[in-house]
Fold this sequence. Notes:
alpha+beta, two-stranded antiparallel ribbon
Amino acid sequence: MLLNEVYDYAKEHMDKSIEALKHDLNTLRTGKVSTAVVENIKVDYYGTPTPLNQVGSVLATDATTITINPWEKNLLKDIEHVIQVANIGVNPNNDGEVIKLFFPPMTEEERKKQAKKAKEFAEKAKIAVRNVRRDANDKVKKLHKDKEITEDEEKRALDEIQKITDSYVAKIDEIVSKKTDEIMKV
């Protein structure tokens, strides 16, 4: 019973590392432009910093264009300004109705940079997973020290935690490999 709680703790926290990794990877640019590029940009909406997708529709209209259509046209100038300040690599085009972001096709060098960032995100996630493993191992060792489990149970538990860790590291590698393929695909 006690050990299952430790395993659940490890899995739950390792799942959070995977979620954080996916979120980080969504900010990377691939051959196809994604609305995630503007996900973290907020515009002042009646005194409240508000994500763009909550003040209008944000769509990737084709492989290189994002269109932002605010529900209130008086926000166009503000949205244009926050996009310029965010420095996402393109200038907003405001036609008085919508804002269009035209992203040039990625160069080989840009693709390699994005792939390198993906690997950095993977490393960050693996470190987080290993930190969870360490915490889980410490909990198991404490259970043994407090005589709540036997030495054999401790050894089996540490092995199980390592198996869980290995499976999460493999998941991270798989997710990042897919993302890198997506980035490098022309």
